[in-house]
Amino acid sequence: MPVALARRSRVLAACAVPVAALLAVAVFAPLPFSLAEPGLTADVLGSKKGEQVITISGAEPRKTTGELRMTTIAATGPDAAVGLDDVVDGWFRADRAVMPRDSVYPVGENTDEIEEYNRAEMRESQDTATAAALGHLGRSPKDVKVTLRLADVGGPSAGLMFALGIVDKLDGDGRGGDLTGGRTIAGTGTITADGRVGPVGGVPLKTRAAKRDGATVFLVPAEECGDARAELPKGLRLIPVTSLEGAVNALTALERGGRVPHC
User: Fold this and answer.
1) CB under 8 Å to 210, separation ≥6 — which residues?
2) Active-site residue set
3) 41-73+118-256 has CATH 3.30.230.10 classification
4) What is the DSSP letter of 54?
């Protein structure tokens, strides 16, 4: 082998060592991402762990049929190591998503802090859902007391479904029927006390959770229609909503064969 070529080979070999080391670090080093997948769903009209999710006093609750299912995602913990191979795998799978860790865990440095933050978000979501539902129905919180219980779930994304559950238990479709029409309806969305519905994230995974648990209709915040359509499970109908009133009207129209919004 000529001297120059031999020297070049040695240089290339020497360069290959740090490159290989860098690639190994890239593959095995933890990255600032979380892996998420479809989580649990819960029927807010029913019970969870032996307790009614919605309990009403000061008014006679209706007997309801069908289901209103809130949806969640399940994500790797804040301390879980996520490597490049996990990220690449997640990009090519419809049943898993790669999400920036800060978007999944925006507050807290450890599991206890994050769980407390999520519980606080859930409590606030329940309070605003109650205010939105009673305001929609013209009921006074002094006369009607609503208690919401849902263990092991945190965050604000169940607000819309809580509010719809309260409306269904107190008023239904306003004519003696159920908002669900006997269907299994799932959905997601934050809610404000005046009934505005906001985005939540993770919608493609939540639609999969909904379909898995028997839903045929999914209520989605209107601004997340694109995300929901991208990987929509077959047989699941999307209904975009921007407000509690709009959601109630859409479900009523669905039952009566009226005009129903679509993404």
Assistant:
1) 41, 69, 71, 186, 187, 218, 233, 236
2) 157, 206
3) yes
4) E
Residue 38 is inside which H or E element, if any?
A: strand 33-43
How many helices (H) and strands (E) are present in the chain, helices listed first?
A: 8, 12
pLDDT for 63-114, tens place per residue?
999 999 999 998 777 776 666 766 666 666 778 777 776 766 666 666 777 6
- DSSP code of residue 13: H
Q: What's the whole-number mean pLDDT along residues 189-214? A: 96
Q: How far is CA 70 from the centre of its chain?
A: 8
> Model-level pTM?
0.80
Whether the CB-CB separation of 224 and 205 falls below 8 Å is answered with: no
The DSSP secondary structure of 163-210, one letter per residue, reads HHHHHHHHTTTTTSS-SSTT-EEEE--EE-TT-BEE--S-HHHHHHHH
Provide the residue ranges of all domains of the chain, joining segments of one domain with +: 41-73+118-256
CA torsion through residues 242, 243, 249, 250, sign: positive
Q: Cβ distance 137 to 171 under 8 Å?
A: yes
